[in-house]
Protein backbone atom coordinates (compact mmCIF):
# COMPACT_ATOMS: atom_id res chain seq x y z
CA UNK A 1 0.00 0.00 0.00
CA UNK A 2 1.13 3.56 -0.68
CA UNK A 3 2.20 5.84 2.18
CA UNK A 4 0.51 9.17 2.93
CA UNK A 5 3.35 10.97 1.15
CA UNK A 6 2.95 8.79 -1.91
CA UNK A 7 -0.80 9.36 -1.92
CA UNK A 8 -0.17 13.09 -1.94
CA UNK A 9 2.18 12.70 -4.90
CA UNK A 10 -0.32 10.52 -6.75
CA UNK A 11 -2.96 13.21 -6.65
CA UNK A 12 -0.61 15.50 -8.57
CA UNK A 13 -0.30 13.05 -11.45
CA UNK A 14 -3.15 12.39 -13.85
CA UNK A 15 -3.65 9.51 -16.25
CA UNK A 16 -2.83 10.43 -19.85
CA UNK A 17 -5.35 10.56 -22.64
CA UNK A 18 -4.90 8.24 -25.62
CA UNK A 19 -6.74 10.64 -27.96
CA UNK A 20 -4.45 12.00 -30.71
CA UNK A 21 -1.43 10.46 -29.00
CA UNK A 22 0.63 7.41 -29.94
CA UNK A 23 1.70 4.11 -28.46
CA UNK A 24 5.50 4.06 -28.71
CA UNK A 25 7.35 0.77 -29.18
CA UNK A 26 11.11 0.60 -28.55
CA UNK A 27 12.51 -2.24 -30.64
CA UNK A 28 11.22 -3.56 -33.97
CA UNK A 29 12.13 -7.21 -33.47
CA UNK A 30 9.95 -10.29 -33.24
CA UNK A 31 7.93 -9.05 -30.25
CA UNK A 32 8.10 -5.30 -30.85
CA UNK A 33 6.39 -5.55 -34.24
CA UNK A 34 3.73 -7.91 -32.88
CA UNK A 35 2.95 -5.64 -29.95
CA UNK A 36 2.68 -2.75 -32.39
CA UNK A 37 0.29 -4.77 -34.55
CA UNK A 38 -1.96 -5.46 -31.53
CA UNK A 39 -2.41 -1.77 -30.78
CA UNK A 40 -2.71 -0.77 -34.44
CA UNK A 41 -5.42 -3.38 -35.02
CA UNK A 42 -7.66 -1.50 -32.59
CA UNK A 43 -7.07 1.90 -34.20
CA UNK A 44 -4.33 3.19 -31.90
CA UNK A 45 -1.61 5.28 -33.54
CA UNK A 46 1.66 3.32 -33.26
CA UNK A 47 5.25 4.58 -33.53
CA UNK A 48 7.99 1.93 -33.70
CA UNK A 49 11.53 3.03 -32.99
CA UNK A 50 14.63 0.98 -33.81
CA UNK A 51 18.07 2.37 -34.74
CA UNK A 52 18.34 -0.37 -37.39
CA UNK A 53 16.58 0.79 -40.56
CA UNK A 54 16.20 -2.76 -41.84
CA UNK A 55 14.46 -3.82 -38.63
CA UNK A 56 12.09 -0.85 -38.79
CA UNK A 57 11.24 -1.49 -42.44
CA UNK A 58 10.71 -5.16 -41.67
CA UNK A 59 8.37 -4.30 -38.81
CA UNK A 60 6.27 -1.97 -40.96
CA UNK A 61 5.96 -4.61 -43.68
CA UNK A 62 5.13 -7.32 -41.15
CA UNK A 63 2.26 -5.26 -39.73
CA UNK A 64 0.90 -4.43 -43.17
CA UNK A 65 1.14 -8.00 -44.48
CA UNK A 66 0.04 -9.85 -41.33
CA UNK A 67 -2.59 -7.48 -39.92
CA UNK A 68 -5.35 -9.90 -40.97
CA UNK A 69 -4.10 -12.33 -38.31
CA UNK A 70 -4.86 -9.75 -35.58
CA UNK A 71 -8.54 -9.46 -36.55
CA UNK A 72 -8.55 -5.65 -36.75
CA UNK A 73 -11.61 -3.87 -35.41
CA UNK A 74 -11.08 -0.77 -37.55
CA UNK A 75 -10.99 -0.22 -41.31
CA UNK A 76 -7.59 -0.29 -43.07
CA UNK A 77 -7.53 3.50 -43.47
CA UNK A 78 -7.67 3.83 -39.66
CA UNK A 79 -4.49 1.78 -39.13
CA UNK A 80 -1.57 4.12 -38.46
CA UNK A 81 1.96 2.75 -37.97
CA UNK A 82 5.17 4.73 -38.46
CA UNK A 83 8.84 3.82 -38.14
CA UNK A 84 11.61 5.91 -36.61
CA UNK A 85 15.36 5.64 -36.02
CA UNK A 86 15.55 8.58 -33.61
CA UNK A 87 14.03 8.32 -30.14
CA UNK A 88 12.53 11.76 -29.53
CA UNK A 89 10.18 12.06 -32.55
CA UNK A 90 9.01 8.49 -31.95
CA UNK A 91 7.83 8.98 -28.36
CA UNK A 92 7.43 12.70 -27.68
CA UNK A 93 3.64 12.50 -28.15
CA UNK A 94 3.17 8.97 -26.72
CA UNK A 95 0.71 8.24 -23.91
CA UNK A 96 2.28 4.78 -23.52
CA UNK A 97 5.76 3.52 -24.38
CA UNK A 98 6.60 -0.21 -24.30
CA UNK A 99 10.28 -1.17 -24.27
CA UNK A 100 11.23 -4.33 -26.22
CA UNK A 101 15.04 -4.14 -26.36
CA UNK A 102 17.28 -7.22 -25.75
CA UNK A 103 17.17 -8.87 -22.32
CA UNK A 104 20.20 -7.06 -20.85
CA UNK A 105 19.70 -5.03 -17.68
CA UNK A 106 22.12 -2.19 -18.50
CA UNK A 107 20.56 -1.79 -21.94
CA UNK A 108 17.08 -1.57 -20.46
CA UNK A 109 18.08 0.81 -17.66
CA UNK A 110 19.72 3.15 -20.18
CA UNK A 111 16.68 2.98 -22.45
CA UNK A 112 14.41 4.25 -19.66
CA UNK A 113 16.93 6.90 -18.62
CA UNK A 114 16.84 8.17 -22.21
CA UNK A 115 13.04 7.95 -22.32
CA UNK A 116 12.70 10.01 -19.17
CA UNK A 117 14.33 12.97 -20.95
CA UNK A 118 12.01 13.09 -23.96
CA UNK A 119 8.53 11.80 -23.02
CA UNK A 120 5.74 13.85 -21.48
CA UNK A 121 5.39 13.84 -17.68
CA UNK A 122 2.20 11.77 -17.85
CA UNK A 123 3.48 9.05 -20.21
CA UNK A 124 3.15 5.50 -18.89
CA UNK A 125 6.36 3.48 -19.37
CA UNK A 126 6.18 -0.30 -19.71
CA UNK A 127 8.92 -2.90 -20.11
CA UNK A 128 8.33 -6.16 -21.95
CA UNK A 129 11.15 -7.82 -20.02
CA UNK A 130 10.49 -11.49 -19.40
CA UNK A 131 12.76 -11.80 -16.35
CA UNK A 132 13.72 -8.38 -14.89
CA UNK A 133 11.42 -6.53 -12.52
CA UNK A 134 10.61 -2.96 -13.52
CA UNK A 135 11.97 -1.98 -10.06
CA UNK A 136 15.43 -3.11 -11.23
CA UNK A 137 15.12 -1.40 -14.60
CA UNK A 138 14.09 1.88 -12.91
CA UNK A 139 17.46 2.23 -11.17
CA UNK A 140 18.56 5.20 -13.31
CA UNK A 141 15.32 7.20 -13.38
CA UNK A 142 13.83 9.63 -10.88
CA UNK A 143 11.40 8.33 -8.23
CA UNK A 144 8.49 10.16 -9.88
CA UNK A 145 9.29 8.44 -13.19
CA UNK A 146 9.42 5.02 -11.51
CA UNK A 147 5.83 5.61 -10.39
CA UNK A 148 4.82 5.60 -14.07
CA UNK A 149 6.79 2.43 -14.81
CA UNK A 150 5.59 -1.18 -14.76
CA UNK A 151 6.13 -4.57 -16.37
CA UNK A 152 3.96 -5.27 -19.42
CA UNK A 153 5.00 -8.74 -20.47
CA UNK A 154 3.60 -10.00 -23.79
CA UNK A 155 4.03 -13.53 -25.11
CA UNK A 156 3.58 -14.15 -28.86
CA UNK A 157 0.50 -12.36 -30.18
CA UNK A 158 -1.77 -12.77 -32.01
CA UNK A 159 -1.93 -16.47 -31.04
CA UNK A 160 -1.21 -15.90 -27.35
CA UNK A 161 -2.91 -12.72 -26.16
CA UNK A 162 -1.93 -12.75 -22.48
CA UNK A 163 -0.22 -9.61 -21.11
CA UNK A 164 1.17 -9.80 -17.59
CA UNK A 165 1.15 -6.52 -15.63
CA UNK A 166 3.35 -6.01 -12.58
CA UNK A 167 4.22 -3.02 -10.40
CA UNK A 168 7.66 -1.45 -10.10
CA UNK A 169 6.99 -1.32 -6.36
CA UNK A 170 5.78 2.27 -6.57
CA UNK A 171 3.59 2.26 -9.72
CA UNK A 172 0.51 4.50 -9.48
CA UNK A 173 -2.32 2.11 -8.63
CA UNK A 174 -4.79 3.70 -11.06
CA UNK A 175 -2.50 2.81 -13.99
CA UNK A 176 -3.50 -0.85 -13.78
CA UNK A 177 -7.27 -0.60 -14.40
CA UNK A 178 -6.58 2.08 -17.00
CA UNK A 179 -4.21 -0.20 -18.94
CA UNK A 180 -6.46 -3.22 -18.50
CA UNK A 181 -9.26 -1.31 -20.23
CA UNK A 182 -7.07 -0.30 -23.18
CA UNK A 183 -5.47 -3.75 -23.47
CA UNK A 184 -8.88 -5.40 -23.66
CA UNK A 185 -9.84 -2.86 -26.30
CA UNK A 186 -6.82 -3.98 -28.35
CA UNK A 187 -7.89 -7.62 -28.09
CA UNK A 188 -5.50 -8.65 -25.31
CA UNK A 189 -6.05 -10.59 -22.08
CA UNK A 190 -4.41 -8.61 -19.24
CA UNK A 191 -3.44 -10.48 -16.05
CA UNK A 192 -2.06 -8.69 -13.02
CA UNK A 193 0.62 -10.12 -10.75
CA UNK A 194 -0.55 -9.28 -7.23
CA UNK A 195 3.01 -8.86 -5.97
CA UNK A 196 6.47 -8.50 -7.52
CA UNK A 197 7.70 -11.82 -8.86
CA UNK A 198 10.70 -12.54 -11.08
CA UNK A 199 9.22 -14.34 -14.05
CA UNK A 200 5.70 -13.06 -13.26
CA UNK A 201 3.21 -15.94 -13.42
CA UNK A 202 3.86 -18.33 -16.28
CA UNK A 203 7.57 -17.66 -16.82
CA UNK A 204 8.31 -18.42 -13.19
CA UNK A 205 6.80 -21.90 -13.60
CA UNK A 206 8.34 -22.27 -17.07
CA UNK A 207 11.80 -21.40 -15.70
CA UNK A 208 11.77 -24.51 -13.49
CA UNK A 209 10.49 -26.74 -16.29
CA UNK A 210 13.02 -25.33 -18.74
CA UNK A 211 15.92 -25.75 -16.31
CA UNK A 212 15.11 -29.43 -15.78
CA UNK A 213 14.79 -29.94 -19.55
CA UNK A 214 18.24 -28.42 -20.04
CA UNK A 215 19.66 -30.66 -17.29
CA UNK A 216 18.23 -33.72 -19.06
CA UNK A 217 19.93 -32.60 -22.27
CA UNK A 218 23.25 -31.57 -20.71
CA UNK A 219 23.51 -34.89 -18.83
CA UNK A 220 22.84 -36.84 -22.02
CA UNK A 221 19.69 -38.47 -20.66
CA UNK A 222 17.74 -37.78 -23.84
CA UNK A 223 17.98 -35.95 -27.17
CA UNK A 224 15.92 -32.79 -27.88
CA UNK A 225 13.61 -34.76 -30.17
CA UNK A 226 13.04 -37.52 -27.59
CA UNK A 227 12.34 -35.03 -24.81
CA UNK A 228 9.89 -33.04 -26.91
CA UNK A 229 8.17 -36.23 -28.08
CA UNK A 230 7.54 -37.37 -24.50
CA UNK A 231 6.43 -33.91 -23.36
CA UNK A 232 4.12 -33.56 -26.34
CA UNK A 233 2.53 -36.94 -25.76
CA UNK A 234 2.07 -36.44 -22.03
CA UNK A 235 1.03 -32.81 -21.70
CA UNK A 236 0.51 -30.90 -24.92
CA UNK A 237 -0.17 -33.21 -27.86
CA UNK A 238 -0.81 -30.29 -30.21
CA UNK A 239 1.08 -27.50 -28.43
CA UNK A 240 4.61 -26.09 -28.13
CA UNK A 241 7.32 -28.53 -26.95
CA UNK A 242 10.05 -26.96 -24.77
CA UNK A 243 13.04 -27.46 -27.07
CA UNK A 244 11.27 -25.98 -30.09
CA UNK A 245 10.21 -23.08 -27.90
CA UNK A 246 13.77 -22.39 -26.72
CA UNK A 247 15.00 -22.43 -30.33
CA UNK A 248 12.30 -19.95 -31.32
CA UNK A 249 13.16 -17.61 -28.44
CA UNK A 250 16.92 -17.91 -29.07
CA UNK A 251 19.44 -19.84 -26.98
CA UNK A 252 21.41 -16.67 -26.25
CA UNK A 253 18.28 -15.12 -24.72
CA UNK A 254 17.54 -18.34 -22.84
CA UNK A 255 21.07 -18.25 -21.39
CA UNK A 256 20.77 -14.61 -20.27
CA UNK A 257 17.47 -15.31 -18.52
CA UNK A 258 18.84 -18.45 -16.85
CA UNK A 259 21.89 -16.54 -15.58
CA UNK A 260 19.60 -13.92 -14.10
CA UNK A 261 17.48 -16.53 -12.29
CA UNK A 262 20.58 -18.30 -10.95
CA UNK A 263 22.11 -15.05 -9.68
CA UNK A 264 18.95 -13.65 -8.09
CA UNK A 265 17.85 -16.85 -6.37
CA UNK A 266 21.36 -18.02 -5.52
CA UNK A 267 20.69 -21.27 -7.35
CA UNK A 268 23.27 -23.93 -8.10
CA UNK A 269 23.99 -24.19 -11.81
CA UNK A 270 24.21 -27.90 -12.62
CA UNK A 271 25.95 -27.17 -15.95
CA UNK A 272 23.08 -25.58 -17.86
CA UNK A 273 24.94 -22.33 -18.66
CA UNK A 274 28.00 -24.20 -19.90
CA UNK A 275 25.75 -26.44 -22.00
CA UNK A 276 24.09 -23.41 -23.62
CA UNK A 277 27.42 -21.60 -24.04
CA UNK A 278 28.70 -24.37 -26.33
CA UNK A 279 25.82 -23.67 -28.71
CA UNK A 280 26.31 -19.91 -28.44
CA UNK A 281 30.06 -20.09 -29.14
CA UNK A 282 29.32 -22.17 -32.25
CA UNK A 283 26.82 -19.56 -33.44
CA UNK A 284 23.91 -21.99 -33.02
CA UNK A 285 21.46 -19.56 -31.49
CA UNK A 286 18.24 -21.20 -32.67
CA UNK A 287 15.66 -20.37 -35.31
CA UNK A 288 17.01 -16.87 -35.89
CA UNK A 289 20.33 -17.95 -37.43
CA UNK A 290 21.52 -20.12 -40.31
CA UNK A 291 23.25 -22.68 -38.05
CA UNK A 292 20.11 -23.62 -36.11
CA UNK A 293 20.20 -24.44 -32.41
CA UNK A 294 18.92 -27.49 -30.56
CA UNK A 295 17.25 -28.35 -33.87
CA UNK A 296 18.60 -27.91 -37.42
CA UNK A 297 18.07 -24.52 -39.15
CA UNK A 298 14.59 -23.90 -40.51
CA UNK A 299 12.97 -26.51 -38.26
CA UNK A 300 10.41 -24.05 -36.88
CA UNK A 301 9.61 -22.50 -40.28
CA UNK A 302 6.36 -24.21 -41.28
CA UNK A 303 4.16 -24.04 -44.36
CA UNK A 304 0.42 -24.51 -44.84
CA UNK A 305 -0.58 -28.09 -44.09
CA UNK A 306 2.06 -28.53 -41.39
CA UNK A 307 1.08 -28.44 -37.73
CA UNK A 308 2.00 -25.00 -36.41
CA UNK A 309 2.31 -23.45 -32.97
CA UNK A 310 2.39 -19.76 -32.04
CA UNK A 311 6.18 -19.95 -31.83
CA UNK A 312 6.67 -21.27 -35.36
CA UNK A 313 7.53 -18.92 -38.23
CA UNK A 314 8.78 -16.15 -35.94
CA UNK A 315 11.87 -15.92 -38.14
CA UNK A 316 10.30 -16.92 -41.46
CA UNK A 317 10.69 -14.44 -44.34
CA UNK A 318 8.13 -12.41 -46.25
CA UNK A 319 7.86 -13.42 -49.92
CA UNK A 320 7.83 -10.96 -52.82
CA UNK A 321 6.63 -12.65 -56.02
CA UNK A 322 6.35 -11.41 -59.60
CA UNK A 323 3.28 -12.29 -61.66
CA UNK A 324 4.00 -11.87 -65.36
CA UNK A 325 0.31 -11.38 -66.13
CA UNK A 326 0.09 -14.22 -68.67
CA UNK A 327 -3.26 -15.37 -67.24
CA UNK A 328 -4.98 -12.25 -68.59
CA UNK A 329 -6.54 -11.70 -71.99
CA UNK A 330 -3.95 -11.51 -74.83
CA UNK A 331 -4.50 -7.80 -75.38
CA UNK A 332 -3.84 -7.13 -71.66
CA UNK A 333 -0.82 -9.35 -71.08
CA UNK A 334 1.77 -6.60 -71.52
CA UNK A 335 0.15 -4.29 -68.99
CA UNK A 336 -1.09 -6.59 -66.19
CA UNK A 337 2.09 -7.71 -64.43
CA UNK A 338 2.12 -7.44 -60.62
CA UNK A 339 4.30 -7.56 -57.52
CA UNK A 340 2.64 -9.73 -54.87
CA UNK A 341 3.45 -10.11 -51.17
CA UNK A 342 2.83 -13.31 -49.24
CA UNK A 343 4.06 -15.32 -46.28
CA UNK A 344 6.45 -18.24 -46.03
CA UNK A 345 3.68 -20.50 -44.70
CA UNK A 346 1.33 -19.69 -47.58
CA UNK A 347 -1.47 -18.74 -45.20
CA UNK A 348 -1.37 -14.97 -45.64
CA UNK A 349 -3.47 -14.08 -48.72
CA UNK A 350 -1.37 -12.75 -51.57
CA UNK A 351 -1.60 -8.96 -51.71
CA UNK A 352 -0.86 -6.82 -54.78
CA UNK A 353 1.40 -3.86 -53.98
CA UNK A 354 2.34 -2.88 -57.57
CA UNK A 355 0.33 -3.58 -60.71
CA UNK A 356 0.00 -2.66 -64.41
CA UNK A 357 3.62 -3.57 -65.16
CA UNK A 358 4.82 -4.73 -68.62
CA UNK A 359 5.99 -8.32 -68.03
CA UNK A 360 7.97 -8.04 -64.75
CA UNK A 361 10.50 -10.84 -64.38
CA UNK A 362 13.55 -10.29 -62.14
CA UNK A 363 13.20 -8.99 -58.58
CA UNK A 364 15.57 -8.27 -55.71
CA UNK A 365 15.45 -6.39 -52.41
CA UNK A 366 17.92 -3.81 -51.13
CA UNK A 367 17.46 -4.02 -47.34
CA UNK A 368 19.70 -1.07 -46.47
CA UNK A 369 17.60 1.25 -48.66
CA UNK A 370 14.27 -0.43 -47.93
CA UNK A 371 13.69 -0.85 -51.67
CA UNK A 372 12.29 -3.40 -54.09
CA UNK A 373 14.05 -3.46 -57.47
CA UNK A 374 12.53 -5.23 -60.44
CA UNK A 375 12.85 -5.45 -64.20
CA UNK A 376 10.09 -5.06 -66.76
CA UNK A 377 10.79 -7.08 -69.91
CA UNK A 378 8.25 -5.16 -71.98
CA UNK A 379 7.49 -6.66 -75.38
CA UNK A 380 10.27 -9.24 -75.93
CA UNK A 381 10.97 -8.39 -79.58
CA UNK A 382 11.18 -4.67 -78.83
CA UNK A 383 13.94 -2.74 -77.10
CA UNK A 384 11.63 -1.39 -74.38
CA UNK A 385 12.78 -3.02 -71.14
CA UNK A 386 13.28 -1.00 -67.93
CA UNK A 387 14.40 -1.31 -64.32
CA UNK A 388 12.14 0.04 -61.56
CA UNK A 389 12.22 0.55 -57.81
CA UNK A 390 9.77 1.24 -54.99
CA UNK A 391 9.52 1.09 -51.22
CA UNK A 392 8.80 -2.25 -49.56
CA UNK A 393 5.11 -1.33 -49.34
CA UNK A 394 4.87 -0.55 -53.09
CA UNK A 395 4.93 3.23 -52.71
CA UNK A 396 7.29 5.71 -54.39
CA UNK A 397 7.58 3.84 -57.71
CA UNK A 398 10.49 5.14 -59.78
CA UNK A 399 12.12 4.36 -63.10
CA UNK A 400 15.82 3.91 -62.38
CA UNK A 401 16.88 2.61 -65.82
CA UNK A 402 14.55 3.96 -68.51
CA UNK A 403 12.86 2.01 -71.27
CA UNK A 404 15.19 1.28 -74.17
CA UNK A 405 18.41 1.41 -72.17
CA UNK A 406 18.10 -2.31 -71.54
CA UNK A 407 16.34 -4.70 -73.94
CA UNK A 408 14.76 -7.54 -71.90
CA UNK A 409 15.92 -7.50 -68.27
CA UNK A 410 15.74 -10.80 -66.42
CA UNK A 411 17.16 -11.89 -63.05
CA UNK A 412 18.52 -9.18 -60.72
CA UNK A 413 21.02 -9.58 -57.86
CA UNK A 414 21.93 -6.93 -55.27
CA UNK A 415 25.27 -6.55 -53.49
CA UNK A 416 23.97 -4.52 -50.56
CA UNK A 417 27.40 -4.06 -48.97
CA UNK A 418 28.74 -2.39 -52.13
CA UNK A 419 25.44 -0.66 -53.09
CA UNK A 420 25.52 -2.33 -56.51
CA UNK A 421 23.05 -4.35 -58.52
CA UNK A 422 23.65 -6.77 -61.36
CA UNK A 423 21.14 -7.95 -63.95
CA UNK A 424 20.98 -9.97 -67.14
CA UNK A 425 19.50 -8.83 -70.44
CA UNK A 426 18.06 -11.73 -72.42
CA UNK A 427 17.57 -10.59 -76.03
CA UNK A 428 20.13 -7.87 -75.39
CA UNK A 429 22.69 -10.65 -74.83
CA UNK A 430 24.34 -8.70 -72.01
CA UNK A 431 25.02 -8.61 -68.28
CA UNK A 432 24.94 -5.19 -66.59
CA UNK A 433 26.04 -3.63 -63.31
CA UNK A 434 25.05 -0.27 -61.83
CA UNK A 435 24.52 1.58 -58.57
CA UNK A 436 21.31 0.93 -56.62
CA UNK A 437 19.82 4.17 -57.97
CA UNK A 438 20.57 3.14 -61.57
CA UNK A 439 23.54 5.44 -62.06
CA UNK A 440 26.93 4.23 -63.23
CA UNK A 441 25.48 1.67 -65.65
CA UNK A 442 28.16 -0.53 -67.23
CA UNK A 443 28.15 -3.63 -69.43
CA UNK A 444 30.06 -6.60 -67.99
CA UNK A 445 29.24 -9.23 -70.63
CA UNK A 446 28.35 -8.63 -74.27
CA UNK A 447 27.63 -11.67 -76.47
CA UNK A 448 26.45 -9.72 -79.50
CA UNK A 449 24.63 -6.67 -80.80
CA UNK A 450 20.85 -7.02 -80.53
CA UNK A 451 20.41 -4.35 -83.21
CA UNK A 452 21.86 -6.72 -85.83
CA UNK A 453 19.76 -9.67 -84.64
CA UNK A 454 19.17 -11.80 -81.60
CA UNK A 455 17.94 -15.06 -83.10
CA UNK A 456 20.82 -17.10 -81.63
CA UNK A 457 19.28 -17.99 -78.27
CA UNK A 458 22.47 -19.68 -77.07
CA UNK A 459 23.75 -16.11 -76.50
CA UNK A 460 20.76 -15.00 -74.42
CA UNK A 461 21.72 -14.10 -70.83
CA UNK A 462 18.95 -15.05 -68.39
CA UNK A 463 19.82 -15.95 -64.78
CA UNK A 464 22.25 -13.90 -62.67
CA UNK A 465 23.85 -14.85 -59.34
CA UNK A 466 26.51 -13.25 -57.14
CA UNK A 467 29.38 -14.69 -55.09
CA UNK A 468 30.98 -11.57 -53.54
CA UNK A 469 33.37 -13.50 -51.27
CA UNK A 470 34.64 -15.44 -54.27
CA UNK A 471 34.78 -12.24 -56.32
CA UNK A 472 32.63 -13.77 -59.10
CA UNK A 473 29.27 -13.36 -60.79
CA UNK A 474 27.42 -16.20 -62.52
CA UNK A 475 24.89 -16.24 -65.33
CA UNK A 476 22.90 -18.68 -67.44
CA UNK A 477 22.51 -18.72 -71.23
CA UNK A 478 19.41 -20.77 -71.77
CA UNK A 479 19.63 -21.69 -75.43
CA UNK A 480 16.57 -22.55 -77.59
CA UNK A 481 13.39 -23.55 -75.78
CA UNK A 482 13.71 -27.20 -74.66
CA UNK A 483 16.85 -27.34 -76.83
CA UNK A 484 19.38 -28.87 -74.38
CA UNK A 485 21.95 -26.25 -75.34
CA UNK A 486 21.88 -24.32 -72.09
CA UNK A 487 25.08 -23.25 -70.35
CA UNK A 488 26.21 -21.71 -67.05
CA UNK A 489 29.12 -19.26 -66.92
CA UNK A 490 31.04 -17.22 -64.38
CA UNK A 491 33.52 -14.36 -64.50
CA UNK A 492 35.36 -12.04 -62.13
CA UNK A 493 33.47 -9.12 -60.65
CA UNK A 494 36.31 -6.90 -61.88
CA UNK A 495 36.92 -6.93 -65.64
CA UNK A 496 40.57 -7.80 -66.45
CA UNK A 497 42.69 -4.72 -67.28
CA UNK A 498 42.85 -3.96 -70.98
CA UNK A 499 39.63 -5.82 -71.77
CA UNK A 500 35.97 -4.92 -72.09
CA UNK A 501 32.63 -6.73 -72.02
CA UNK A 502 33.23 -8.24 -75.48
CA UNK A 503 36.89 -9.21 -75.15
CA UNK A 504 37.36 -10.25 -71.51
CA UNK A 505 39.33 -13.46 -71.07
CA UNK A 506 38.23 -14.56 -67.60
CA UNK A 507 34.92 -16.19 -68.62
CA UNK A 508 34.52 -19.84 -67.58
CA UNK A 509 31.85 -22.21 -68.86
CA UNK A 510 30.91 -24.40 -65.90
CA UNK A 511 28.15 -26.53 -67.44
CA UNK A 512 26.90 -27.09 -70.98
CA UNK A 513 24.23 -29.23 -72.64
CA UNK A 514 21.58 -28.29 -70.03
CA UNK A 515 17.90 -28.45 -71.09
CA UNK A 516 17.09 -24.75 -70.50
CA UNK A 517 18.61 -23.17 -67.35
CA UNK A 518 16.82 -20.06 -66.08
CA UNK A 519 17.42 -18.37 -62.70
CA UNK A 520 20.46 -19.09 -60.55
CA UNK A 521 21.56 -18.57 -56.92
CA UNK A 522 24.94 -19.07 -55.24
CA UNK A 523 25.18 -20.36 -51.66
CA UNK A 524 28.71 -19.39 -50.68
CA UNK A 525 28.31 -20.68 -47.12
CA UNK A 526 27.26 -24.14 -48.26
CA UNK A 527 29.48 -24.07 -51.39
CA UNK A 528 26.60 -24.89 -53.73
CA UNK A 529 25.13 -23.43 -56.88
CA UNK A 530 21.36 -23.78 -57.45
CA UNK A 531 19.32 -23.13 -60.57
CA UNK A 532 15.92 -23.73 -62.13
CA UNK A 533 15.51 -25.35 -65.54
CA UNK A 534 12.33 -25.06 -67.63
CA UNK A 535 13.50 -27.44 -70.33
CA UNK A 536 12.04 -30.78 -71.38
CA UNK A 537 11.60 -33.70 -69.03
CA UNK A 538 13.22 -35.78 -67.64
CA UNK A 539 16.02 -33.29 -66.90
CA UNK A 540 14.04 -30.10 -67.38
CA UNK A 541 11.27 -28.47 -65.34
CA UNK A 542 13.53 -29.09 -62.42
CA UNK A 543 15.47 -27.68 -59.47
CA UNK A 544 19.21 -28.33 -59.71
CA UNK A 545 22.33 -28.14 -57.59
CA UNK A 546 26.09 -28.46 -58.10
CA UNK A 547 28.79 -28.51 -55.45
CA UNK A 548 31.89 -26.33 -55.45
CA UNK A 549 35.02 -28.30 -54.72
CA UNK A 550 38.26 -27.21 -52.98
CA UNK A 551 39.69 -26.23 -56.38
CA UNK A 552 36.77 -23.85 -56.99
CA UNK A 553 35.26 -26.02 -59.73
CA UNK A 554 31.67 -27.24 -59.68
CA UNK A 555 30.96 -30.95 -59.92
CA UNK A 556 28.34 -33.46 -58.81
CA UNK A 557 25.40 -31.91 -60.66
CA UNK A 558 22.20 -33.24 -59.10
CA UNK A 559 18.54 -32.76 -59.96
CA UNK A 560 16.91 -32.05 -56.59
CA UNK A 561 13.28 -31.88 -57.74
CA UNK A 562 11.30 -32.58 -60.92
CA UNK A 563 7.83 -31.94 -62.29
CA UNK A 564 7.66 -28.20 -61.77
CA UNK A 565 5.43 -26.44 -64.31
CA UNK A 566 7.81 -24.23 -66.34
CA UNK A 567 10.27 -23.52 -63.51
CA UNK A 568 11.51 -19.90 -63.37
CA UNK A 569 12.29 -18.10 -60.10
CA UNK A 570 14.59 -19.17 -57.30
CA UNK A 571 15.86 -17.58 -54.09
CA UNK A 572 17.61 -18.89 -50.99
CA UNK A 573 16.57 -18.37 -47.38
CA UNK A 574 20.09 -18.54 -46.01
CA UNK A 575 19.02 -18.13 -42.39
CA UNK A 576 16.43 -20.92 -42.30
CA UNK A 577 18.29 -22.97 -44.96
CA UNK A 578 15.45 -23.26 -47.44
CA UNK A 579 15.06 -22.89 -51.21
CA UNK A 580 12.02 -21.11 -52.66
CA UNK A 581 11.12 -21.55 -56.32
CA UNK A 582 8.30 -20.47 -58.62
CA UNK A 583 6.86 -21.64 -61.93
CA UNK A 584 4.71 -20.24 -64.71
CA UNK A 585 1.94 -22.54 -63.53
CA UNK A 586 1.44 -20.10 -60.64
CA UNK A 587 2.87 -22.05 -57.70
CA UNK A 588 5.47 -21.37 -55.03
CA UNK A 589 7.59 -24.25 -53.74
CA UNK A 590 9.79 -24.61 -50.69
CA UNK A 591 12.56 -27.20 -50.29
CA UNK A 592 15.28 -27.99 -47.82
CA UNK A 593 18.73 -27.17 -49.16
CA UNK A 594 19.21 -30.78 -50.28
CA UNK A 595 15.87 -30.85 -52.14
CA UNK A 596 13.95 -32.80 -49.50
CA UNK A 597 10.89 -31.50 -47.64
CA UNK A 598 9.07 -30.33 -50.77
CA UNK A 599 6.11 -28.02 -50.04
CA UNK A 600 3.81 -26.36 -52.56
CA UNK A 601 1.55 -23.37 -51.89
CA UNK A 602 -0.03 -20.30 -53.53
CA UNK A 603 -1.25 -22.40 -56.44
CA UNK A 604 -3.01 -21.05 -59.54
CA UNK A 605 -2.78 -17.38 -58.54
CA UNK A 606 -0.91 -16.09 -61.58
CA UNK A 607 2.08 -16.84 -63.80
CA UNK A 608 4.99 -16.53 -61.40
CA UNK A 609 8.50 -15.49 -62.40
CA UNK A 610 11.02 -13.90 -60.02
CA UNK A 611 10.88 -14.28 -56.23
CA UNK A 612 12.70 -12.47 -53.41
CA UNK A 613 12.70 -12.68 -49.60
CA UNK A 614 12.63 -10.13 -46.80
CA UNK A 615 13.71 -11.33 -43.36
CA UNK A 616 11.30 -10.59 -40.52
UniProtKB/TrEMBL annotation:
<protein>
    <recommendedName>
        <fullName>Dehydrogenase</fullName>
    </recommendedName>
</protein>
<keyword id="KW-0560">Oxidoreductase</keyword>
<dbReference type="InterPro" id="IPR006108">
    <property type="entry name" value="3HC_DH_C"/>
</dbReference>
<feature type="domain" description="3-hydroxyacyl-CoA dehydrogenase NAD binding">
    <location>
        <begin position="23"/>
        <end position="193"/>
    </location>
</feature>
<dbReference type="InterPro" id="IPR036291">
    <property type="entry name" value="NAD(P)-bd_dom_sf"/>
</dbReference>
<dbReference type="InterPro" id="IPR000033">
    <property type="entry name" value="LDLR_classB_rpt"/>
</dbReference>
<dbReference type="InterPro" id="IPR008927">
    <property type="entry name" value="6-PGluconate_DH-like_C_sf"/>
</dbReference>
<dbReference type="InterPro" id="IPR006176">
    <property type="entry name" value="3-OHacyl-CoA_DH_NAD-bd"/>
</dbReference>
<dbReference type="Pfam" id="PF02737">
    <property type="entry name" value="3HCDH_N"/>
</dbReference>
<feature type="domain" description="3-hydroxyacyl-CoA dehydrogenase C-terminal">
    <location>
        <begin position="199"/>
        <end position="292"/>
    </location>
</feature>
<dbReference type="InterPro" id="IPR013328">
    <property type="entry name" value="6PGD_dom2"/>
</dbReference>
<dbReference type="InterPro" id="IPR011042">
    <property type="entry name" value="6-blade_b-propeller_TolB-like"/>
</dbReference>
<dbReference type="Pfam" id="PF00725">
    <property type="entry name" value="3HCDH"/>
</dbReference>
